[in-house]
Amino acid sequence: MRCDMPDSQFLDCVDFDHPTMTRAAELVSRGRTRAAAKEAARAMLAEPLAHPVREAEIPALARIIRRRWPEQVEYLVRLADNYILSEPPEKGVLCGRNAEEEATLYRHPARNWPRRGESVHFLGRLYHLTGERKYLDGAVAEIRRIMAGIGEMPDGEHVGAFDWHPHSNGSTGHEVGHIVDKICHGLPYLRADLTPDDALVLLKGLLAMADFCFRTCRYDVVHNITLHMLIGPLMLGLCLPALKPAGEWVRWVGKRVETDFTARPFATPDGYFGEGFSYQTVNHALMFSCLRFMQAAGRKVSPRLRQVCEKSFEFASAVTRNDGQYPQFGDCHAYQPHEHYIHAHEILHLAAAHFRREDFKAAAGSPYD
User: Fold this and answer.
1) Considering the entire predicted model, what is its pTM?
2) How far is CA 308 from the centre of its chain?
3) Fewer beta carbons below 10 Å: N end or C end of the chain?
4) Is 109 exposed, middle or buried (0-12, 13-18, 19+ CB in 10 A)?
């Protein structure tokens, strides 16, 4: 599949028995392929999604954040205006107070977010925090840029994504898994403001990448790369049940997550994922996302998944330092936490609310002091 697949191919992946697809099915029956594809994309995003972020709460949360943490909003604006929406100078200190802060708070997100789709999520959130249309326009431009930059992902059952896969040129890598994950996180901030054209570009790209991730990695061994690739099809299937492959994605990936990824060699009984302290944050962010997206969709979640997630945060609360980072152990390095929701402070606060654990909140402290 390609992210710019023909409209007819996109429609082949739509479940016209879904109650939201009545109008799109009518357009197909009249031979209006382009109009049907746009209508299908529009209808999939016409109402708030089954998602951990409740859209009705976004305005109130934005007001609270602006009132209580205005300096954080100012930081995000600096990051967006100087590093995401425009090209910063290649070298030198632009917004940081010193070289280390420049690298950690500004340069590292600017390198990683645009190629992994976090820029879309980030700009969508900033649009609601500031009310400035340029951030919504920037998020849509990022969607189009990302989708245009993804090459063809081979069809068939016997293709691979990585060098260790047979029949793979190793050129795709796991960035496509990141992109589906990050953009699915950002959908509630963007859904209501997308035009049918923008929605179709977005959903074609997410469909193509999720399909490729599922086909190439559903049988792969348990480690963070496989989980990165599988979480996208799970999230997309839960958010957009009118996609024809959604049911298979959710059943298959859900079962793998709840069985293979909740036991050794991936997870130990005390919540350690065995890939170094830095990838502890990566893995428990991924597992926690699986838990939250499945619960938001109203699906029955296995006690094992909930237990592994909670245990991983118990482990995190024990090793988190006062500065919100883990001690460097295993594969860690100073700039590893480059995505906002794997920062130890922030994800522990989220876990404290989700599991109702005061000890998690106490261990997290505040990243803004």
Assistant:
1) 0.93
2) 20
3) C
4) buried
Token pair 């130990």 is found at 268
CA distance 224 to 280: 10
Burial class, 91, CB count within 10 angstroms (exposed 0-12 / middle 13-18 / buried 19+): exposed
Contacts of 65 (CB under 8 A, 6+ apart): 72, 73, 129
Identify the three-state secondary structure at position 122: helix
Short-list 30, 52, 26, 48, CA closest to 39: 26
d(CA 246, CA 235): 9
37-43 CB contacts, 8 Å cutoff, 24+ apart: 37/7, 37/10, 37/11, 37/200, 38/196, 38/197, 38/199, 38/200, 39/196, 40/10, 40/11, 40/14, 40/242, 41/10, 41/196, 41/199, 41/200, 41/202, 41/203, 41/204, 42/196, 42/199, 43/242
Q: What is the pLDDT of residues 260-272, one digit of tens each?
A: 999 999 999 989 9
- Decide if pLDDT at 52 tops 80: yes
Q: How far apart are CA 204 and CA 30, in angstroms?
A: 22
The closest alpha carbon to 142, from 211, 103, 90, 189, belongs to 189
Q: Is the peptide bond before 265 cis (omega within 30 degrees of 0)?
A: yes
Summarised one tens digit per residue, pLDDT across range 295-327 is 999 999 999 999 999 999 999 888 887 766 677
